């Protein structure tokens, strides 16, 4: 059974390393960053912030734009071959600190979303080989060669640097036809490629327990914790709930209904309900939580009376507000006003 992550890749946000690398590659070709980013939805200044994550759909826009403006069709291979431990961010240092090749590989597989590849990864073992499958969301066929080249090239380059000779790429399989620069695949990936196959996959020698030269259990635990915190912060659940709450809080006194919020997020109400249910929450629960947080702020930081606060929160009767507030907090509103 392939091992992979639970959430759809096109829901996530991505670290900015790939975006920055593409901008650098295009700059070397004489194309300005501003020109590359035009129409992608990505603001240049955001990429300079250490806490920036880029929505997956915006990264798709950037890749398409870069391919359009680049003077080389081998942009994916070039990008993958340029990657190193630091370009994988905290994930790179986590892998490098692992004790063995086996631990390093499967740590990377578990936390691959902390890097900035475009594809979803899963793996299964077959005898003395391991298959690293690479899957893209539907509708991205135009950037599939780039995405496979960048992902496979990055894996071969970075794991080769960290693990050394024990990392053996055996074969790349792709679902697309061989491009006119197919001969460069072997140079970058150090293995043969078979095109027009049923899957996009990199076959490697099965990871063993070879000790790694930079193993440091303390650093590995620390880096792993930071990676977990980063992924939790930018998980699809956090993104969806954050966006729902942003819309709910945008117009005080006019809490929008589900249809309005769904339309704002580009889905219908049924889809929004289903997505929230996937994360064990509901639109009603998010509305109540937003109302509770707003109510606490109004009670503590304003001089508005209860009738005014109730109206701002969308209640026509102050008694309904009092009842709801008691359910949320276990205390009446006056408790927080007096406290």
Describe it:
- This protein is of the alpha+beta class.
- The protein has two domains: 9-233, H-NOX domain, CATH 3.90.1520; 236-338, Orthogonal Bundle (Arc Repressor Mutant, subunit A).
- The protein has helices at 17-28, 33-37, 56-69, 75-82, 89-97, 101-110, 144-163, 183-189, 217-233, 236-249, 258-264, 269-278, 283-301, 306-312, 318-329, 333-338, and strands at residues 13-14, 54-55, 120-126, 129-135, 169-173, 193-194, 201-205.
- The strands form two sheets. It has a five-stranded mixed sheet with strand order 3-4-7-5-6.
- A hairpin with a 2-residue loop joins strand 3 (120-126) and strand 4 (129-135).
- The longest helix has 20 residues, at 144-163.
Layout of secondary structure:
Elements: E1 13-14, H1 17-28, H2 33-37, E2 54-55, H3 56-69, H4 75-82, H5 89-97, H6 101-110, E3 120-126, E4 129-135, H7 144-163, E5 169-173, H8 183-189, E6 193-194, E7 201-205, H9 217-233, H10 236-249, H11 258-264, H12 269-278, H13 283-301, H14 306-312, H15 318-329, H16 333-338
Parallel strand pairs: 5-6
Antiparallel strand pairs: 1-2, 3-4, 4-7, 5-7
Helix pairs in contact: 1-3, 4-7, 5-6, 5-9, 10-13, 11-12, 13-15, 14-15
GO cellular component, one term: cytosol
Organism: Kineobactrum sediminis
InterPro entries: AraC-type_N, Homeodomain-like_sf, HTH_AraC
Q: Which class of secondary structure composition applies to the elements?
A: alpha+beta
The proportion of residues forming helix, as a percent range, comes to: 40-55%
Query: How many strand units?
Result: 7
Output the number of helix runs: 16
CATH topology of the largest domain: H-NOX domain
One letter per element, helices H and strands E, the order comes to: EHHEHHHHEEHEHEEHHHHHHHH
Sheet bearing the most strands, described?
Answer: 5 strands, mixed
Give the strand order, joined by hyphens, for the main sheet.
Answer: 3-4-7-5-6
CATH architecture classification name of the largest domain: Alpha-Beta Complex
Beta-strand percent range: 5-15%
State the domain count.
Answer: 2
Keywords: DNA-binding, Transcription, Transcription regulation
Domain HTH araC/xylS-type: 238-339
Pfam families: Arabinose_bd (PF12625), HTH_18 (PF12833)
GO molecular function: DNA-binding transcription factor activity; transcription cis-regulatory region binding
């Amino acid at each position: 059974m392939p091992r992979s992550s639970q959430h759809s890749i096109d829901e996530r946000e991505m670290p900015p390393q790939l975006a920055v690398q593409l901008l650098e590659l295009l700059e070397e070709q004489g194309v300005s960053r501003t020109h590359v980013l035009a129409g992608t939805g990505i603001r240049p200044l955001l990429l300079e912030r250490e806490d920036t994550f880029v929505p997956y759909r915006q990264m798709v826009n950037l890749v398409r734009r870069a391919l359009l403006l680049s003077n080389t069709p081998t942009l994916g291979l070039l990008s993958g071959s340029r990657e190193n431990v630091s370009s994988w961010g905290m994930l790179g240092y986590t892998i490098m600190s692992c004790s063995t090749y086996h631990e390093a590989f499967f740590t990377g597989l578990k936390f691959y979303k902390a890097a900035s590849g475009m594809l979803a990864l899963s793996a299964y073992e077959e005898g003395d080989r391991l298959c690293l499958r690479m899957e893209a969301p539907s509708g991205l066929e135009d950037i599939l060669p780039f995405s496979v080249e960048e992902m496979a090239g990055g894996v071969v380059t970075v794991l080769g640097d960290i693990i050394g000779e024990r990392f053996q790429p055996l074969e790349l399989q792709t679902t697309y036809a061989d491009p006119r620069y197919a001969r460069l695949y072997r140079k970058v990936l150090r293995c043969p490629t078979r095109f027009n196959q049923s899957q996009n996959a990199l076959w490697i020698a099965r990871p063993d327990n070879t000790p790694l030269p930079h193993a440091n259990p303390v650093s590995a635990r620390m880096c792993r914790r930071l990676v977990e915190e980063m992924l939790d912060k930018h998980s699809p659940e956090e993104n969806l709930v954050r966006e729902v709450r942003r819309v709910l809080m945008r117009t005080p006194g006019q809490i929008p209904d589900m249809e309005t919020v769904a339309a704002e997020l580009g889905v219908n109400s049924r889809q929004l309900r289903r997505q929230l249910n996937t994360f064990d929450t509901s639109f009603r629960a998010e509305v109540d939580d937003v109302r509770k947080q707003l109510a606490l702020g109004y009670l503590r930081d304003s001089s508005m009376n209860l009738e005014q606060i109730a109206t701002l929160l969308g209640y026509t009767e102050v008694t309904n507000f009092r009842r709801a507030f008691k359910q949320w907090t276990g205390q009446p509103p006056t408790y927080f006003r007096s406290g």
